[in-house]
Amino acid sequence: MEYKHFSHQHNLSIYQVQPGQQLRCSGCDKFCDKTIYACWQCKFFLHEHCGNATRYIKHPFHSSHYLILSPYPTYPSNCFLCNACGTNGSRFSYCCALCEVDLHVNCAFLPPKVTHKAHPHELVLNHSSQTGGHNQVCKMCRKLLDSNHWSYECLLCANYGVHTLCATNEIKMGLYQMDDGSDTEPSYQAAPMTQPAASTAQPGTSGGQVELTPVEALAILMGLSNAASYV
């Protein structure tokens, strides 16, 4: 069975990654494992969660506008700086072109709370700058914790902050465990994850991956729910 993804011109097939294979995801640039979507002709691969990522989300970090899933950076440099983790990206991102907000796909769906074997208490995701506005040291890796980017903090221990990547290094990206023990996405996701469309999808659509008209895309960027007001 073949599938279609809006970011790629060819159909994708499901493939089970074999032990020892090193295939990089074209969505997040991390190594693939388990089941992926693949185009062998172009060496284009997607994790399941990258291939199924919804086309736009409303995120608490930037609640004034929707963030649109872009398959490539929107800047002339062909890269973006993730507002969450502070590292560069050159693949998929959730972005607001109006405000120059950019998030890696994995960063956009970071769990609001995590536990880690390095600390006895629950760690809570903080989207804002650190209290006091000055840089601290990550309590796990002992490297600089930039106050301009997100961190996980312990509400019980004063000045205990860690990098988002350090706090989640024990978690399978794209599949987070919530308080009730179920595996699901954070509550701020705009729409349920959908399977890429089968190859029988009608022309002009990508099945579950909704193709937006320019009017609809502009309406979403402006945070409007009714695109008809632009017609």
TrEMBL record:
SUPFAM superfamilies: Cysteine-rich domain (SSF57889). Residues 183-209 are annotated as: Disordered. Keywords: Repeat. InterPro entries: C1-like_sf, DC1. Residues 6-50, 60-108, 118-167 form the DC1 domain. Pfam families: C1_2. PANTHER family: DC1 DOMAIN-CONTAINING PROTEIN, PHORBOL-ESTER/DAG-TYPE DOMAIN-CONTAINING PROTEIN. This is DC1 domain-containing protein. It comes from Mikania micrantha (bitter vine).
